[in-house]
Amino acid sequence: MGCAGSSQTKADGSIKKIRKPKSWKHPQPITRSQLTQLRDEFWDTAPHYGGRKEIWDALRAAAEAELSLAQAIVDSAGVIVQNADLTICYDERGAKYELPNYVLSEPTNLIRDSS
């Protein structure tokens, strides 16, 4: 919930809308199961980077949701979005939260798991 002085609020008074992250490419082709494992490892360790667990939980929910729901999640959690793609956010106490691209979108070189 950004106030007029918050970095989440633009000059015209509207809240910064989140958007899909830019395309990215993993250093080598990666399967969906490998991507899921990377994501799970990140979210399991994220609270150890600092910040509050409830904000990390809200960011995870937003990262896994459609854009309109993600916007509602970050707004209701009081997350201040610095980068519209959610890669850099802050909580109301000023703690910084950095999200890697691989938790926000799929790589361009995602390959099918072999059966």
TrEMBL record:
Which Gene3D superfamilies does the protein's record reference? Ub domain-containing protein, DC-UbP/UBTD2, N-terminal domain (1.20.225.20)
Q: Where is the composition biased (Basic residues)?
A: 16-25
Q: Where is this region: Disordered?
A: 1-31
Task: State where composition is biased (Polar residues).
Answer: 1-11
Q: Which residues form the DC-UbP/UBTD2 N-terminal domain?
A: 16-113
Top-rank taxon of the source lineage equals Eukaryota
Q: Which Pfam families match?
A: UBD (PF16455)
Q: What is this protein called?
A: DC-UbP/UBTD2 N-terminal domain-containing protein
